[in-house]
Amino acid sequence: IDKDTSGILVAAKNDHAHNALARQFKEHTIKRVYLALVYGSPKGEKGKIESVIGRHPVDRKRMSGKARHGKHAVTHWQVVGRYAGMTLVRLRLETGRTHQIRVHLASIGHPILGDPLYGRARPAKARKGHPKPDEARIRNAIRDLGRQALHAHLIGFEHPRTGGLLEFRSEIPRDINALIVTLERF
Questions:
Q1: Which residue, among 177, 44, 48, 62, has the nearest Cα to 105 in the 3D structure?
Q2: 35 Cβ contact list (under 8 Å, min separation 6)
Q3: SS3 assignment for 40-82
């Protein structure tokens, strides 16, 4: 998972497990589900984002969904909750490219809150002058998060030895949950 993304990940304890898991990642059979708070409100309740993701032509630290040379990437999304100017979405990866979720969400105009590379560091002011107290509280809560609001919620894979299906979950962390509680008030 990316730096500043919370949640679950898998680690192999031996070469056999590593090779079996690497094969599953390559074949895109690993189930990966993320939760993210994004700016705006996507149209509809669910959808699919599909593009080629490759190195950005100018900024080598970034990836781009408009790269000439890259790899096919697919992200499925579903709305979990809608708040004032923000939405909690559930994301299922069909492929696993570098920064895939962040690139895809930014490409449809809904970057992840707090994403310093692909999104706005803070929401745009709704109007000129002083923000309403509620807007200031929301901006402060996003600032206090101090990272992107992206969480690796679930991973599922075939056990390397037994072949049985395993699934592990990580509940949404306190910092993102606190932000959601703040958003629910408004």
A1: 48
A2: 80, 88, 89, 90, 91, 150, 151, 153, 172, 176
A3: CCCCCCEEEEEEEEEECCCCCCCEECECCCCEEEEEEEEEEEE
pLDDT in tens, 58-84: 777 788 877 778 899 999 999 999 998
Q: Full-prediction pTM beyond 0.85?
A: yes
Which amino acid is residue 173, in one-letter code? Answer: P
* CB-based burial label for 29 (10 Å; 0-12, 13-18, 19+): exposed
Q: Are 112 and 105 in contact (CB under 8 A)?
A: yes
Helix axes 133-145, 174-184, angle to 10 degrees: 170
Residue found by looking up tokens 């901006």 in the block: 139
Residue with tokens 């990272």: 147
**Two structure tokens written together for 7:** 């949640």
Measured distance CA(139)–CA(83) in Å, rounded: 14
Please name the residues in contact with 62: beta carbons below 8 A apart, sequence gap of 6 or more. 55, 56, 99, 117, 118
- Other C-beta atoms closer than 10 Å to the C-beta of 54 total 19
Residues 53 and 70: their CA atoms lie apart, in Å, by 5
**Continuous segment of H or E residues that includes residue 107:** helix 100-107
Catalytic residues: 2
Sign of dihedral through CA atoms 25, 28, 34, 37? Answer: positive
Residues 23-38 have pLDDT tens digits of 999 999 999 999 999 9
